[in-house]
From TrEMBL, chain A:
Alphabetic keyword roster: 4Fe-4S, Electron transport, Iron, Iron-sulfur, Metal-binding, Repeat, Signal, Transport
GO MF entry, a single one: metal ion binding
Annotated protein name in UniProt: Fe-S-cluster-containing hydrogenase components 1
Keyword hit for Nucleus: no
Gene3D superfamilies documented for this protein: 3.30.70.20
Domain of life, per lineage: Bacteria
Domain 4Fe-4S ferredoxin-type: 117-146
Leader sequence residues: 1-22
Residue ranges of coiled coil: none
Automatic annotation (TrEMBL), chain B:
Record's protein name: Hdr-like menaquinol oxidoreductase cytochrome c subunit
Superkingdom, natural source: Bacteria
Cross-referenced SUPFAM superfamilies: Multiheme cytochromes (SSF48695)
Signal peptide: 1-20
Domain Doubled CXXCH motif, first and last residues per copy: 69-100
Record keywords, A-Z: Signal
Signal keyword on record: yes
Pfam families recorded: Paired_CXXCH_1
Length: 231, 124
């Protein structure tokens, strides 16, 4: 007889440590934390889009059947080594860079980095110039071309402004996991480990210290908070 | 001639007075009491929200007293079929007053106008 605990173990959900407790009401985010994801591409199937679907549902991203311009906070990039033919599937979202190019080029200060390293767009002052979209080497930002309706209360989004992955800041502030990591653990192989890179006791910090991990386009020196294994 | 003109002016004044007296009719909120008195809310709600929005977004301070999300949750009504009615629909809480005051709120170009619902998944 398989019980709930075994099911949890089998799904890998139990391997995903919950992040630190919710921050107290009235307290600002601080640089004590540095939130990040460790993505094991060995566990990420090329056809699997569970993280992408979870993100769309969480953020209320309805498409217009125009893949080139529809808003997308996370996408699956399938890469192949031309020498060996080895293929990998890599989920790519805003890398929440420590030195974000998007923030450097923003003329209004709308692209901003929170103290805990989460990079956001302040759409109250975004003028939709899209410099950040051009500056971001990870193609992590989208533009809202249409008037928006049916937004999620936790994710305001509107016509004429830039948007991108918020690392589910509304969930993190409540002590919950980002929607992609939660869905991957529950419905796929648990390829995404979320946690505080600054906390030496966290699983993500320990694994980053112990195991070989890479950052995509590390040569650019933006110091992303997203780390990958197996590519 | 002059008398007729005067009568016309008086009638126009009368019409204006009648329109001004038609105060907006607002749907009742779900909660028992707002975060401040009606007088304060009427005058200060934009400042309350504007002050707090930067703290929430830029500093990550949550749980502030004034929250647009909570305003919507409390003031959105439900249609007979159970669907939430957007607060900026004609006659609804936000819109009836803003129409009366001839002020267009731009909050709802981005912010949700109904409490949380499940969104139909994107077609992609
Ligand atoms: S990935 Fe792009 S959008 Fe995200 S922080 Fe880095 S430069 Fe900015």
């Amino acid at each position: 007889m398989i019980n709930r605990r075994h099911l949890l173990l089998a799904s890998g959900a139990i391997l995903i440590a919950a992040p630190a407790a919710a921050r107290e009401a009235g307290k600002p985010a601080t640089a004590a934390q540095r939130w990040g994801l460790l993505i094991d591409t060995g566990k990420c199937g090329a056809e699997c889009t569970i993280c992408v679907e979870a993100c769309k549902a969480e953020m209320g991203l309805a498409g217009h059947d125009r893949p080139r311009t529809d808003a997308q906070y996370i996408r699956k990039v399938n890469v192949k080594d031309p020498a060996t033919g080895a293929g990998h599937s890599v989920p790519v979202m805003c890398q929440h860079c420590a030195k974000p190019a998007c923030v450097d080029v923003c003329p209004t200060g709308a692209s901003m980095k929170r103290a805990d390293g989460i990079v956001l767009v302040d759409r109250h002052i975004c003028i939709g110039c899209r410099y950040c979209m051009m500056a971001c080497p990870y193609k992590a930002r989208s533009f809202a071309h249409e008037e928006q309706t049916g937004q999620q209360p936790h994710l305001p989004r509107g016509k004429g402004t830039v948007e991108g992955c918020t690392l589910c800041v509304h969930r993190i502030d409540e002590g919950r996991l980002p929607a992609c990591a939660e869905a991957c653990a529950a419905k796929a192989k648990g390829a995404m480990l979320f946690g505080d890179l600054n906390d030496p006791k966290s699983e993500i910090a320990q694994r980053v210290a112990r195991e070989a991990t890479t950052r995509i386009r590390a040569d650019l020196g933006l110091e992303p908070a997203m780390r990958y294994q197996g590519i | 001639m002059l008398a007729r003109l005067l009568l016309g002016v008086l009638m126009m004044l009368g019409a204006a007075a009648a329109t001004a007296a038609d105060l907006p009719a607002l749907p009742k909120a779900k909660g028992e009491a707002c975060i401040a008195s009606a007088e304060v809310m009427r005058r200060d709600h934009p400042d309350m929200l504007k002050h707090q929005r930067d703290e929430t977004l830029r500093l990550g301070i949550r749980g502030a007293k004034a929250s647009l999300k909570e305003c919507v949750a409390c003031h959105a009504t439900q249609a007979a079929d159970g669907h939430a009615v957007p607060v900026n629909d004609p006659g609804q809480f936000c819109q009836s007053c803003h129409a009366y005051a001839a002020v267009k709120p731009d909050c709802f170009e981005c912010h949700a106008t109904t409490p949380k619902t499940t969104i139909k998944e994107a077609s992609r």
